[in-house]
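The material for today's practical consists of a large collection of protein records. Getting from the letters to the tokens is the skill we practise here. To make this concrete, we reproduce a full record directly below:
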Amino acid sequence: MLRTPAVAGPFYSATAAALEDEVARCLDGSAQPRPMIAAICPHAGLMYSGPVAGSVYSRIALPETVILVGPNHTGFGPAVSVYPEGAWQMPGGAVTINRELAEKILALCPHAEADTSAHQREHCLEVQLPFLQNRRRQVRIVPIVLGMRDPALCRAIGDCLAAVIAQSAGTAGGQPLLVASTDMNHYESDTITREKDRHAIEAIERLDPDRLDAVVTTRRISMCGIAPTLAVLHAARALGATGATLVRYATSGDRNEDRARVVGYAGFTINGSGRPQQHSPNLSECLTEQADSDNYTPIAVPKG
């Protein structure tokens, strides 16, 4: 079973050489990669959110397998869709599904179903793969798409993922990394978006899924990947994480200079110490300063 790319071209370069160069421009060469329990990364076109995602992946020593959890933007498939086997084709080669780990998740996780329909046109996990392939060429994945926002179910999924990951500790491939895929607030002004995102970021830094769910609701933060983030926060806490480090924050306005209607992007690493591993920017600075140009030429790329 081979999934073909859904967003090669619009979201990232469609040829291997061009994509390799695009990813390299997003990475932070000064970072020291270290093992992490989990990460949270955005999923817009690389021209928009690539530098945020690249800053995160630059700081992670990738294990053999990455469990990717993202939101369902298309409406296809079940509430909890696990891609069960096969591979995902990318311009730089295919990424193999860890079938054995997928089967364990399907056996343990409530409402999880083996399904491919939710993934065929979904972009949120596909845009993580150029970074994963760059950091570890033979990386394997388990893609999971969530089409619901039920806090109790998110907790149950997180507990399930933690149990499966704990069983893998000490194996030859190492403990799988969890990645939640989400963008932050959508399509409000840059000023409003940064203010709204500040509340969500503070909850994530505290590894507090209940507070995150509450502030997203009460402050009407249009965070598309709230369910995956809740599930991963619950899992990280169960695995011994004590804090999340904000690595980088930006908005689409930092790229296209349109600050009237932006999307926010935040990238985090999550480890067991709760201490910053490399670059830990001041939150207020992240939410008020514009990102540098990174030598990007603006083109028509999806920003959310």
In short: Residues 273-281, 288-301 have pLDDT under 50 and may be disordered. The first helix runs from residue 16 to 26. The two ends are 28 Å apart (CA to CA). Residues 25-288 form a domain with the Protocatechuate 4,5-dioxygenase; Chain B fold (CATH 3.40.830.10).
